[in-house]
Description:
The chain has one domain. The chain is α+β, with helices and mostly antiparallel strands. The chain has three helices and four strands.
Amino acid sequence: MGVDVVLYRIVRAGPGKRRPSHVTAEVVPDPEDVLLELLRRVRGGGRTPLLDLVDPLGQLVVGAEAAPRLMAELRCLAEVATAPSEVGHVRRLGLLVRRCLRDRDVEIRFEGD
C-alpha cells in the first residue's frame, strides 16, 4: 500500500481539444512503503504542510509552481531518513522535483493505492 510518485508531462491541448493530456515521464515506486514511513515521521510537525496532504489511498497533484516548496519539504524527509533505502528514495524524489523546477510543463502526483 505504498505511495508511488509519478512525474507527468503536460501535453497542451491543440485545436479542437479542451483539456491537456498527461503522459507519464518517470515513476518512483514505493512497494515497500518507504515513503509512507518517512511521511509518518514528519507529519504534523508544521514543517511539511504540502507532504502532510499525501493520502495513502488517494492522489495529491503538485504543479510546477509548488516545486520549490516541495523541494524544501523533501529536506525534512532527508533529515529523518536513516536506512540506505530511505536515503535513496528521498534522493530519487529530489531528482523528480528538480525536473519539475526546470520544466514548467510537468507535474508530480503522489498516487496512493
